[in-house]
Amino acid sequence: MNLNDKVAVVTGAASGIGKQIARTYFDNGAKVAIADLDLAAAQAAARELDPSGERALAVAMDVTSEEQVEAGIAAVAAKFGGIDVLVSNAGIQIVNPVESFDFGAWKKMLAIHLDGAFLTTRACLKLMYAQGRGGSVIYMGSVHSKEASKLKAPYVTAKHGLVGLAKTVAKEGAAHGVRANVICPGFVRTPLVEKQIPEQARELGISEDEVVKNVMLKDTVDGEFTTVDDVAQTALFLAAFPTNALTGQSIVVSHGWFMQ
Ligand code: NAD
């Protein structure tokens, strides 16, 4: 499977899972846009991939801003000649019990995960439909698209919501050869997760080691973290898959934490 001559936009690709997906797409032939809130980190990631700038581009984008998403996607299409793959990956985590969850924090979570997915999808679909060469839209869900955990109400709500969006885009996009799927990783040791370990230890009144063993990895088949590469290989498979046969699905990559 390769992505030769394909153009991919990955949001939140200055760090963690998105960064590895960008690298994997690049290594498999794609032209890659690294869209992130943190422009300096996005520029560094793009330089790491391709110092010449021919096949890697950094784009400043807050995925919750309609204006920035429209401008960013247009800039990618102008530089690389269209868009074939969108990975809507940007995300954050805020943990708190429901009864004391701050309303502003709730809205911020839904905006990044859901508004961001909608805005980037809308901008890319318009281009994909007009280009007439199909496309692949991939949402970064989570085991929390299927399961709940304490303290993560807006995250679980938003990640479940992405499954609905993917199924709708799969139905609407089929006539244009555009597929939509969700990747649902288990815990991956990125900055997003490293930040949660002490926060959850405090909230649950247990040690950080117990958070890892008894909360995060308790239900896996082997006590292992999922890796950025595990997720990136799945993203490559979904991006390169050639037909509408694989659409509207959510694929769980979690060391068996959740089995569907
Ligand atoms: P990360 O913190 O390493 O990277 C997230 C990136 O998103 C950062 O570069 C950040 O600058 C960017 N970002 C944040 N808000 C943004 C915004 N408004 N607009 C544009 N970019 C923004 O996190 P990660 O662990 O790589 O997470 C990536 C995705 O994977 C998220 O959607 C997350 O929910 C999901 N996920 C992570 C795990 C895990 O265990 N790490 C598990 C399942 C799903």
Backbone CA Rg: 18 Å
Q: Which structural class do the helices and strands define?
A: alpha/beta
Regions with little confidence, pLDDT below 50 for 5+ residues: none
Instruction: Describe the strand arrangement of the main beta sheet, using strand numbers.
Output: 3-2-1-4-5-6-7
Fraction of helical residues: 40-55%
- CATH homologous superfamily designation of the largest domain: NAD(P)-binding Rossmann-like Domain
CATH fold call of the largest domain: Rossmann fold
Proportion of beta-strand residues: 5-15%
| Total DSSP helices | 8
Report on the biggest sheet: 7 strands, parallel
Inertia-based shape: globular
Order of helices and strands: EHEHEHEHEHEHHHE
